[in-house]
Description:
By secondary structure, the chain is mainly α. It contains eight helices and no strands. Helix 1 packs antiparallel against helix 2 and helix 5 runs antiparallel to helix 6. The radius of gyration is 14 Å and the shape is globular.
Amino acid sequence: MENFSNEKINLLAEKVVGFILTDDDKSAIQTLKPLLDARCPFSKLDFLGKEIGQSGIDANDNFFKAFDEIIDYNAMGGFVVVGQALIQFLENDFEKVMNKSREYIIKGNEWYVCDIIGERSLGQALVNHFNKTIP
């Protein structure tokens, strides 16, 4: 396992966000591939997802498009990154986060995808927006 320090993860997040903001999703996913293909602790992937999500709150359409690309890569770590990033959009785009979470669980079609997305974006929605999430 390569050493992915928080500093390296932060730099990676900045690079990925830069590509997403310029609508270069292909470069964003190419930048993420080494991390997604490696054995990386979920805590590091969560940190990366949070950093990416926090940077995208004001440019959410670009970010949701990039999240689709990350999910399409179909790496377990990608679901962690996107699930954590989606949490950052709950306040401003609740319905879209709920719809995307459902879409990604169906697309992933594995028990662990439901677990990963469920404990991140859907779980946080239940914690912060219980009455709104239940329906």
